[in-house]
Write a structure and sequence with these properties.
The chain has twelve helices and twelve strands. With 345 residues, the protein is α/β, with parallel strands linked by helices. Strands 5-4-3-10-9-8-7-6 form an eight-stranded parallel beta sheet. Strand 3, helix 1 and strand 4 form a beta-alpha-beta unit. The longest helix is centred in the C-terminal third of the chain and has 18 residues. It is elongated and about 100 Å long. The mean pLDDT is 95.
């Protein structure tokens, strides 16, 4: 799977996405500076969301349309999306800034008109948000464009995942990634279930990753260790600007630290290799081996009192310890001399 100039595979480095979402707080200048900050922080990609309040929902104060049980408690859905949306007339300029910064830029569309609009900008990929994974007609339409499709699974059952995957494949699109996501804002760390990152990849034979709403960098690092190849995290220029997503977003300092931790985790994972590096071989100098610990005269018997397994590692391997006990020295051997088989019979 290729997204822009990034070759994404099960052996590639982690593709790190900075999610702009509502963190422009209504200012295109803040949005542009946030993109520049994401580049400084080490992101590979900046991601937008493309919708309007009217493409997302309808204006209503009926109980069904009032948010409950989240940080947006009591807010009208239409009002939330009106406050949070990224104006479509900004997109071209934001894509331009991302390109100037060397960042890949794409978006999450929330209806067909958003897809049609994003096609005019030649986006390199599409992201389906967690709450849209059941919108099969939307997924089919996105997949039909022949671009990589990244699906968030925050509210998905196995049936939902399979329906979404089938929708992509029906359109002849097999460039699919699945992101483990906990759709809480912020998400409790004990509900992260990062072992599912590995299971998603194995169960569905796709690239897997993480769309994260937890606080801090712990979960992205754990996800990396479980094979995540995509990590998405909400990014804000400065927490002080506020906004609907500010409380669970990372600022530049936090995001930079997360990127560093993820990159170090990648290095730490390494490969399965039982051969020793030069440093490890040199380290064997500090291992145990058999040494004479009391002066031995020719004819003396080798005993546990005059030979021990100690550091350093220049003597005989300790595996010979029981074999040499009871043998007779054929020469004088000074204390602190590495034992050799030639000294005994």
């Amino acid at each position: 799977m290729k997204i822009g100039n990034f070759e994404l595979s099960k052996n590639s480095e982690v593709f790190i996405i900075a999610e702009l979402s509502a963190n422009h707080n209504g200012s295109i200048e803040v949005a542009k500076e946030t993109i520049r900050a994401a580049k400084r922080a080490g992101a590979n990609c900046i991601k937008l969301q493309t919708y309007t309040a009217d493409t997302m929902t309808i204006e209503s104060d009926k109980e069904d349309f009032i948010i409950k049980g989240t940080i947006w408690e009591g807010c009208n859905l239409h009002k939330l999306y009106q406050d949070a949306y990224t104006p479509w007339e900004w997109h071209e300029e934001l894509f331009k800034v991302a390109k100037e910064e060397g960042l890949i830029c794409f978006s999450s569309p929330f209806d067909k008109t958003a897809v049609d609009f994003l096609e005019t900008l030649n986006v390199p990929a599409y992201k389906i948000a967690s709450f849209e994974i059941t919108d099969i007609p939307l997924i089919e339409y996105v997949a039909s464009k022949g671009k990589p499709v990244i699906l968030s699974t925050g509210i998905a059952t196995t049936e939902d995942i399979e329906l979404a995957l089938d929708a992509c494949k029906r359109m002849g699109n097999n460039d699919i990634a699945l992101l483990k996501c906990t759709s809480s804002y912020p998400a409790p760390i004990d509900e992260a279930n990062m072992c599912m990152v590995k299971d998603l990849a194995k169960r569905y034979n796709v690239i897997s990753g993480l769309s994260d709403h937890t606080m801090g960098a712990t979960v992205p690092v754990v996800a990396t260790c479980f094979g995540a190849k995509i990590i998405e995290k909400h990014f804000i220029l400065d927490h002080s600007i506020g906004g609907p997503d500010a409380s669970f977003s990372m600022d530049e300092t936090e995001f930079t630290a997360m990127v560093l931790a993820v990159r170090e985790a990648e290095k730490a994972i390494g490969v399965v290799d039982y051969t020793l590096t030069d440093k490890q071989i040199k380290g064997k100098d500090f291992s145990r081996s058999l040494y004479v610990v009391e002066d031995i005269k020719a004819g003396d018997i080798i005993t546990k009192e005059n030979v021990r397994s100690i550091r350093p590692g220049f003597g005989m391997h300790p595996k010979y310890y029981h074999e040499i006990l009871g043998k007779k020295a054929i020469t004088d051997i000074e204390r602190a001399v590495a034992l050799k088989m030639d000294f005994m019979k």
